[in-house]
Write a structure and sequence with these properties.
The complex is a heterotrimer of chains A (439), B (276) and C (292). Chain A is of the alpha/beta class. Chain A has helices at 2-19, 43-55, 69-78, 94-99, 107-111, 155-161, 169-181, 195-219, 229-243, 256-264, 277-280, 327-337, 340-350, 366-377, 386-390, 392-406, 412-428, and strands at residues 29-36, 59-66, 85-87, 133-134, 137-138, 150-154, 185-187, 268-273, 291-294, 308-309, 381-382. The mean pLDDT of chain C is 87. The chains are: A alpha/beta (439), B mainly alpha (276), C mainly alpha (292). The interface between B and C is large, with 88 and 90 residues. Chain A: Pfam families: SBP_bac_1.
Chain lengths: 439, 276, 292
């Protein structure tokens, strides 16, 4: 009996010991960084943290990264024990946290000098991508450049076959016939993650049909906006794409890394993803693969402006919690992380593009350069994912509807009708705060 | 001839059932020693070479090793506490008469009906307030609390079988209530204690939902959480092999446990529910 | 003296378990009821909104969907699990006193002890349309037109999840029923043999009536466990496609821990409890009524 009790007590002590967080109070500063780890990885931050610690004795940068970091963050915010610097990722309700005043506005810091420079920090960023503002205050600082969902193709394959990149939906259907002769499908898409093809196919089609106005009306929950002509036509066009057999067999039951593997095996002509694609799939990209981006094709008789998709990037940016213990130290590290030298290293080694000025030249990846090219060549940009930032539940519901449409379970008319019903549900729900979406 | 036909008829259904159980496990095992690229592109083929690298990456990179240790700690401590605390309550409820006996009995009975889901959100907030989120101690306490009802009612059945005369004899010999419990009662209900321990082992070792709610820190995750985590991570990388290796690693311990305690598990499960 | 001593002993015996139980099981359940009247995202202020959450359930199409899906799970799982378990139990019972008995019993029981997470992931890989075993086998035996995106389409996703849940549950109930069969007095079965009953007649008229009690237990267990189905849909389909496999439990989890609507999630929890109670009582009633 005694033995058992003692073991028990001992075990409890051991376990309790595990959970104790030891705090060093001997002049050491620990900056706790918690970041989302997606296709961009987290090595570029960890590398910079290493070099920063070597230069600054007494400062420890502790980086935690995980694909489900949002769960850990939620717990930390609830218990008022926040980390010092965060990248929340796509699943965290960062706007809600900002609304509650739990994220520090960064405008004052941005007016300070940049890392080892006379230039104001804010001037070191490309302006176009720097719009994570609420009520006039800037809260988030993006460092990695993220495009919206673009289409990607293999230039080598197209050259070998003598194919042209499709400029219109008509050309796309012609290309489909040629691809079929080669036993290839046009798209390999992650069927079980419908947001890929909702943001990569559907919303661009809405833009092509009705311009950004159609999208903005829908995003701002205007009555009837989800049943507009553009919404309906885009749904009909999507249905047609399925009926014309543009999608790879089995593609509606696989996830995105699987779909992308088929794309890189040249079983399909296009994949849709953001700029993280190359880094995410590095292991399986053949050496002679020439990954290039293209903007989605136009439609006949459309009113759209052929805008290029950008990511609003709320989830991928850096934030500093209002109650962080080491705000200043976190700012210093963030300045270092976003300094030209560090960003160039990141751009070179990880194949990521950045929103920090003068780092374009360091881009060694042709794929990334082509994605930037899409943006530069278009007449303007729009942010399809903005609806997910503001009304995540609504966006999720409509994305699910779109999946049903693509699976042939509902008609385009039903899609529009039910989407409008979801929008109405959100419009009438006083517990959801309404925001004026624009880009 | 007739006899063979008869035999086939008797076995065919059970053979189909057995195949449905065994083949998936074999499939996972074969894939776990395949290189990642072959898993996606040549799913049904046998591995071109046997490669245990997947296990290494599942165990260390994907954190299954950490999960294994955490699960071991949490499960063993929880079981000891559950069995011990439940036995104390079951003993009193079975053998003693006192004022609030009915109330206490009923409130524990209520625990059998309350779905864990009901209190998901408040439980999380309570644990958060007590600073027991992301803590193995917190997880142990919750596991113990949620296993009490079930274990108490199994054990009451065993205590009821012990004749009262034995306790009376011990009291006459001058044993206090604690000695009676420890020296007389516990040895007599040992089979019950062991059954309870085995059942709680399976339940807690495999538990997912409470852990999912209460643990988000990677270093505190239990085995099922780490396993589910592999699936998450796998979506962002192309290391499919680790997923299968992780599955095998999570199946092996319970299988060994099952082989050892098979009899008791199977017979105990039926005994408990019929009596209860 | 002896008496007071005994009183203290009883208190000491009861105290630790009772404290844990009331703190971590009873208190959160009561708190759920209270929280269901507030709008609260876990951060910031709580706002008293009365019955708004409960009213919202009637217009929340996702909740209504989850509610119906849960009903569908019950409708399919209860009869399937019951029927398959009975057949397995009867088949194994016939082999008693052969070397096959223990083997089959162990194999059938085996899935029950595996972690639900592992089972869900295991079958998710089998159902994978391109790298999965199921489509692979279908292609290999020339049934290509049968291959499909099992978990990706509404027509098959629900059935697949039901299948895997049954795969996990059946073993336990088979063994439960089996042990009841073995408890049936031999004389009864012998008497039936003498009367010249066929095997089928013996099963229906002699064995099944003897199993009423245990079948009632099985029904209630299946019902409660079906209401709690969580891992399978969460890990296999994420509740999709378009919510077709999403039960209340998963919807509630998402409301609480993805959308952080703690108040609304609590209200769903309260409804969930009421449903569980109603379902249990109903099952008891129906099976009891059957008996009289």
């Amino acid at each position: 009996m005694k033995k058992i009790l003692w073991t028990l007590v001992l075990l409890l002590v051991v376990v309790a010991g595990c959970t104790d967080e030891s705090d060093n109070d001997d002049g050491e500063t620990t900056v706790e960084v918690m970041m989302f780890e997606g296709g961009f990885g987290s090595e570029w931050v960890k590398d910079s943290a290493e070099s920063y610690m070597e230069m600054n004795e007494g400062v420890t940068i502790d980086v935690t990264s995980s694909p489900d970091i949002h769960q850990q963050l939620q717990t930390r915010f609830l218990s008022d024990d926040v980390p010092d610097l965060i990248v929340p990722g796509p699943s965290f309700d960062i706007q809600g946290v900002i609304r509650e005043g739990m994220i520090a506005p960064l405008d004052d810091y941005l007016d300070e000098n940049a890392y080892e420079s006379d230039q104001a920090w804010v001037d070191t960023f490309e302006e176009g991508q720097f719009n994570l503002k609420k009520d006039g205050n800037t809260y988030g600082i993006p460092t990695v450049f993220a495009s919206g969902y673009l289409w990607w193709y293999d230039e080598k394959l197209f050259n070998d076959q003598g194919w042209e990149v499709p400029q219109t939906q008509e050309e796309l259907y012609e290309l489909a016939d040629q691809a079929e002769e080669q036993g290839k499908a046009v798209f390999a898409i992650p069927g079980v993650h419908p947001s890929y093809y909702f943001y990569g196919i559907y919303l661009p089609l809405v833009e092509r049909f009705g311009g950004e106005e159609a999208l903005l009306n829908a995003y701002n929950l205007e009555e009837g906006a989800w049943q507009s002509d553009a919404i309906l036509k885009a749904a009909q066009e999507s249905q047609k794409m399925v009926e014309e057999g543009l999608f790879m067999e089995g593609t509606f039951g696989i996830n995105h890394t699987e779909a992308q593997t088929f794309f890189f095996q040249r079983d399909a002509l296009f994949a849709m993803a953001g700029t993280w694609l190359e880094g995410e799939m590095a292991d399986v990209i053949p050496e002679d693969f020439k990954l290039r981006a293209l903007n989605q094709p136009a439609v006949a008789n459309g009113d759209g402006e052929q805008l290029a998709p950008i990511s609003t990037g709320w989830g991928g940016a850096w934030y500093i919690p209002e109650d962080a213990n080491q705000k200043d130290a976190a700012i210093e590290f963030l300045k270092y992380l976003s300094s030209e030298a560090e960003v160039e290293k990141m751009v070179e080694s990880k194949g990521l593009a950045s929103v920090v000025k003068n780092t374009d030249d360091a881009i060694q990846s042709d794929a990334l350069a082509s994605a930037l090219g899409v943006l530069q060549e278009s007449s303007g940009s729009y942010a399809p994912t903005a609806i997910n930032d503001t009304y995540p539940e609504l966006a999720g519901n409509i994305v699910d509807l779109y999946q049903s449409l693509m699976l042939g379970d509902i008609t385009p008319e039903e899609f529009a009708e039910e989407a409008e019903a979801f929008a109405e549900q959100t419009r009438n729900n006083d517990n959801v705060e309404k925001v004026d979406i624009s880009w | 001839m007739m006899k063979i036909l008869n035999q086939i008829r008797q076995h065919i259904f059970l053979v189909i059932v057995s195949i449905l159980v065994i083949i998936p496990v074999i499939w996972v095992f074969v894939n776990s020693v395949k290189p990642s690229s072959e898993i996606l592109l040549a799913p049904l083929s046998f591995p071109s070479k046997i490669d245990f690298g997947n296990y290494v990456s599942a165990w260390s990179d994907a954190g299954l090793g950490v999960g294994f240790v955490n699960s071991l700690i949490v499960t063993s401590i929880s079981i000891i506490l559950i069995v011990f605390l439940s036995a104390m309550v079951a003993f009193v409820l079975s053998k003693k008469q006192f004022r609030f006996k009915k109330t206490i009995q009923l409130s524990f009975l209520l625990g059998l009906m309350l779905p864990t889901f009901l209190a998901m959100a408040p439980l999380f907030l309570l644990m958060n307030k007590l600073d027991l989120v992301n803590s193995l101690v917190g997880l142990v306490l919750v596991y113990v609390a949620y296993s009490l009802s079930f274990t108490i009612f199994i054990l009451i059945a065993f205590f009821n079988q012990v004749p009262d005369s034995l306790e009376e004899a011990a009291v006459i010999d001058g044993c206090g209530p604690f000695r009676v419990f420890w020296n007389v009662m516990l040895p007599l209900v040992k089979p019950g204690l062991i059954s309870a321990a085995i059942f709680n082992f399976v339940g807690i070792w495999n538990e997912y939902i409470l852990a999912l709610i209460l643990i988000s820190d990677d270093s505190m995750k239990t085995l099922p959480l780490q396993l589910a985590n592999i699936m998450m991570i796998q979506q962002y990388h192309t290391d499919w092999g680790a997923l299968y290796a992780g599955l095998v690693l999570s199946i092996i311990p319970v299988t060994i446990f099952f082989l050892i305690f098979q009899r008791r598990l199977i017979e105990g499960s039926t005994a408990g529910s019929i009596k209860g | 003296m002896q008496h007071r001593n005994e009183k203290w002993a009883i208190i000491i015996f009861l105290l630790p378990a009772t404290v844990l139980y009331f703190l971590f099981v009873i208190y959160p359940s009561i708190e759920a009821l209270r929280m269901s009247f507030y709008n609260w995202r876990g951060l910031g202020t709580k706002e008293w909104i009365g019955f708004d959450h409960y009213k919202y359930m009637f217009v929340d199409s996702s909740f209504i969907n989850a509610f119906l899906v849960t009903g569908k799970y019950i409708l399919f799982l209860m009869p399937i699990v019951l029927l398959v378990s009975i057949i397995i139990a009867l088949s194994i019972a016939k082999l008693i006193r052969t070397r096959w008995f223990n083997l089959y019993r162990a194999i059938t029981f085996f899935p029950y002890i595996l972690p639900a997470v592992a089972i869900a992931m295991l079958w998710a890989t089998i159902f994978n349309p391109v790298s999965g075993m199921l489509n692979g086998i279908l292609e290999a035996v020339g049934l290509e037109e049968w291959t499909r995106e099992w978990l990706g389409r509404e027509s098959t996703a629900f059935g697949s999840v039901v299948f895997v849940t049954a795969w996990q549950m059946v073993g336990f109930y088979s063994v439960l029923i089996l042990s009841s069969i073995l408890n049936i007095p031999e004389e009864l079965l012998e008497a039936a043999d003498i009367d010249g009953a066929s095997r089928f007649q013996k099963n229906i008229y002699v064995i099944l009536p003897m199993l009423k009690d245990i079948l009632q237990v099985v029904l209630i267990f299946t019902l409660i466990n079906t209401l709690k189905v969580f891992e399978m849909p969460q890990l296999m389909t994420g509740g999709g496609p378009n919510g077709s496999t999403e039960p209340i439990s998963l919807y509630m989890y998402e409301q609480a821990f993805s959308n952080f609507n703690f108040g609304y999630a609590s209200a769903i929890g309260v409804v969930f409890l009421i449903l569980t109670l109603i379902a249990s009582v109903l099952t008891l009633r129906i099976t009891r009524g059957d008996r009289s």
